[in-house]
């Protein structure tokens, strides 16, 4: 009897076995990694397998395998990624990219990300390309950190060179809006000197009617996010404007502007004084993440630095203006005082000159010998001795005896005894 042996299974191809094992090792290595990993098959780039990080990136609602990558993520086609995969598949040459920008999703849910990526051809045992292996490490946070440092440095340089406050705040608002991973609209309000009202500072993306409506709002409990934050001196996070009581008086205005959430942080000086508020608005209800809060703290501090510097420069300019005004006033006073002194000296000189002339005239007149007989008698003349001199208001004078002098004084109102210097008064009193 002939023994019949059962057929043995064909021996496994070592090359195929090694290739499969290698890919299993890759799956094991990258299955729970934060690096993005995917195996694409065929010219259509079917997603054969991928790790969780890949599906977290594309969105868990699109976590499917066996689907062409272009169908799973149609937004990639317009960004050149599918063309790159076609090139790697066709040529067998790998592609490596650094800080590659990719927009994931579409419309209002689109998100900007950056990756270091590597596309490597997958080959079968014969060396034919059967797909593409995708490996990527997200560098979004590093890229954003670099951009943040660059933008922040530029803002500090603006502050250092004393750029206008409106220019600094407007640039800061635009910087944050560009850095934020999701759409955000930034507003900065400045506190009045008394801290009771908030004025428009910067809000480049908010509609004008909204900025005009909130310009000058009071600080107080329940006055929106900003008024309340300014009053409390602490952040106020309103995640849903439509349902928050702080927004009762402003809800219709916010709805008209298309605003659904507002996170506001007070901007405080080093001494704790209120400088203003820094707000981030959103189109949909949103809860802030740790990265949002960190961004808020960094730029609220930058805004405080800019505003305090502005106040210092304003105070310095005002002090210089007061000093110039005081100097001008002092110069005016000195000039007027010199003019008055010169006028007084001129008048004193004129008065002294007049007095001297009067003394000279009086002395000359006194030196003249008076007549021997009275000049005040009737036509034949009075033979009495001339003892007293009288004068009238017109400067005419005459000598007379006591009787005729008294008669003249009693009957002619403008006549008076001449002064003592001329000898008349003494003679009259001592008669």
TrEMBL record:
Highest taxon, organism lineage: Bacteria
Cross-referenced InterPro entries: GAF (IPR003018), GAF-like_dom_sf (IPR029016), PAS-like_dom_sf (IPR035965), PAS_4 (IPR013656)
SUPFAM superfamilies xrefs: GAF domain-like, PYP-like sensor domain (PAS domain)
Domain GAF: from-to ranges: 151-317
Designated name of the protein: GAF domain-containing protein
């Amino acid at each position: 009897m002939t023994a019949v042996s059962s057929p043995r299974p064909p021996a496994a191809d070592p090359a195929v076995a090694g290739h499969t094992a290698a890919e299993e090792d890759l799956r094991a290595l990258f299955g729970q990694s934060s690096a993005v990993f995917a195996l694409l098959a065929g010219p259509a780039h079917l997603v054969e397998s991928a790790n969780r990080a890949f599906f977290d990136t594309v969105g868990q609602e699109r976590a499917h395998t066996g689907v062409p990558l272009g169908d799973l993520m149609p937004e990639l086609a317009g960004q050149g990624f599918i063309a790159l995969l076609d090139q790697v598949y066709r040529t067998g040459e790998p592609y490596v990219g650094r800080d590659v920008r990719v927009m994931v999703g579409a419309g209002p849910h689109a998100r900007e990300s950056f990756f270091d990526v590597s596309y490597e051809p997958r080959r079968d045992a014969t060396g034919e390309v059967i797909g593409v292996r995708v490996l990527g490490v997200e560098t979004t946070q590093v890229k954003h950190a670099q951009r943040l440092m660059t933008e922040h440095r530029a803002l500090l340089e603006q502050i250092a060179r004393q750029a206008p406050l409106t220019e600094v705040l407007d640039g800061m608002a635009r910087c944050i809006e560009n850095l934020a991973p999701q759409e955000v609209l930034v507003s900065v309000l400045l506190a009045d000197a008394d801290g009771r009202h908030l004025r428009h500072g910067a809000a480049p993306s908010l509609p004008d009617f909204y900025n005009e409506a909130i310009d000058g709002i009071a600080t107080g409990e329940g006055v929106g996010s900003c008024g309340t934050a300014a009053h409390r001196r602490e952040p106020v996070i309103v995640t849903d404007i439509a349902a928050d009581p702080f927004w009762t008086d402003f809800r219709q205005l916010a709805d008209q502007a298309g605003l659904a959430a507002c996170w506001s942080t007070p901007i405080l000086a080093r001494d704790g004084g209120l400088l203003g508020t820094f707000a981030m608005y959103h189109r949909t209800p949103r809860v802030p993440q740790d990265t949002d809060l960190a961004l808020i703290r960094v730029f609220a501090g930058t805004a405080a630095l800019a505003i305090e510097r502005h106040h210092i420069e304003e105070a310095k300019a005002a002090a210089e203006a007061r000093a110039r005004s005081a100097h001008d006033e002092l110069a005016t006073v000195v000039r007027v005082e010199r003019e008055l002194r010169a006028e007084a000296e001129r008048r004193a000189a004129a008065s002294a000159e007049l007095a001297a002339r009067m003394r000279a005239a009086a002395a000359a007149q006194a030196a003249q010998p008076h007549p021997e007989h009275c000049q005040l008698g009737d036509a034949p003349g009075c033979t009495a001795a001339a003892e007293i001199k009288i004068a009238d208001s017109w400067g005419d004078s005459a000598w007379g005896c006591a009787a005729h002098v008294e008669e003249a004084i009693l009957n002619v109102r403008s006549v008076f005894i001449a002064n003592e210097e001329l000898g008349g008064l003494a003679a009259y009193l001592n008669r």
